[in-house]
Amino acid sequence: MTDRVRDSGAAPARGRLGGLLAALLAGGASVFAFSPFGIFPLAVLSLAVLAGLAARESRARGGFALGFAWGLGAFLAGVSWLYVALNRYGGMPMPLAAFAILLFCAYLALFPAAVGALFVRFGRGAAWRRALLFAGLWIGAEVLRGWLFTGFPWLALGYSQTPPSPLAGYFSALGVYGVGGLVAFLGALVALSAWRNARAAAVTLGAILVVCGLGYGLGRVPWTAPTGKPLEVALIQTNIEQGLKWRPELLSDWLDGNARLVREHPADLVVLPETTLPLLADRLPDGYLEELAAPVAARGGDLVFGVFLRDARGAIYNAALSLGASPSQNYAKQHLVPFGEYSPPLFGWFYELVDIPMSDQTRGAPDQPPLRLGDQRVAINICYEDLFGRELIRSLPEATLMLNLSNLAWYGDSFAQPQHLQVARVRAMETGRPMLRSTNTGMTALVQPDGRVADVLPPFTQGALNLSVQGYEGLTPYARWGDSAALLLAVLALVVAGRPRGKTGVGSAI
Prior knowledge:
Blueprint (H helix, E strand, L loop, with lengths): L1 H28 L11 H15 L4 H20 L2 H8 L4 H29 L4 H19 L25 H22 L5 H21 L6 E13 L4 H4 L5 H14 L4 E3 L5 E4 L7 H11 L3 E9 L5 E9 L4 E4 L38 E3 L2 E7 L6 H4 L8 E6 L9 H16 L3 E5 L5 E3 L5 E4 L6 E11 L3 H5 L2 H15 L7 H4 L1
Helix pairs in contact: 1-2, 1-3, 2-3, 2-5, 2-7, 3-5, 4-5, 5-6, 6-7, 6-15, 7-8, 7-13, 7-15, 10-11
Main location: membrane
Pathway: Protein modification; lipoprotein biosynthesis (N-acyl transfer)
Organism: Aromatoleum tolulyticum
């Protein structure tokens, strides 16, 4: 009798462990939906596994555990390249760096965990109602992750749906969070529908086709239009290895190398990447900046490059500076990286474990205007600032071009480079503007307003992307509403999902 009791308890325990393992693997598999793999349907299938497992749970804590397992798998697989920055370039010992990444991914996993718990607690009724609940919760969780503690929206699920996904057309209206909500809705609907019932299956398939078809149609709408003359641009990729960049004995090599690349690639607009000059501008050799910009100014063009600026108060900014035919202008990075560019309160001890140059920076003002360069108005964003679409649209409708300066050498040869290019593709579609990217090690590219990558340099090579780019004017719906549209969609989904249930015809079967 005792053995039978033990056996009956062991089976559910094995089932729970199996469910957690399935959620962990499904989360890990979701990374293949993003660049460089681009298997975008996997995002829907990955969430279908999570929703299906959670639907069989009876207690919220079981849903929390499943969501946490899914999130842990997704973030460990997707952003583990942060370990390279801490260990290889930051000097943090291997066990501490691994533990820090584990803790960070565990924190990020709390957001899908909350979705799982709330879905189990409130998910009742027809499949379409529960799918709406799942989608509304997912949008809320991703928006919160992109805002709390300055936000970390990397791998928001909507990023996986760049073209050729039929959902890509929604970026211009709903932004990345709204598209992520649609992925969650479709995934939950696939998992929860009664597929053995032919009529219900037809309704489910019809709903999926409608969502995808509407997205395809939205993608054909020209929300913005060309303006001004095309601009000849040279986007330079310097390819300076991060471990060598800050060595004082090599400084002259980097200064000479930047000047040589500018001379070799003349254009109306020449761009060098983030912090391409690893020194405060006021400590550069006398006459160097004039020498750097001279070849561009001689042909009536402008040079934009990344450099550290210091104001009269002694505050240091990660900035972009323009020199050339147009009046000199600058942009100071607004959204700094915690632990990399500044220390959050009470975390000063972190810098006793790592060695990160220029890690005491000051935020730039939130209302900086676009740079006026010739006939174009160029909105600058630096490195991972382009993950925050709600901040980039502050420069609209004035800006005609978007320009990102980045240095991802901190993360080695990893998923960081292609994932970041995919982020730029989403920002181009949200704003209806071309996104130019000049990076140190990759990926230097031009992204058109429809999200298409017009051209890209191979990562970890030195060179320049010489091309012609057209400015655009006008506003997409996302540029007008920002993330409010996705939040409204989430609220509507939650309200409809929570309405009193009655007879709903075919819908009751699914």
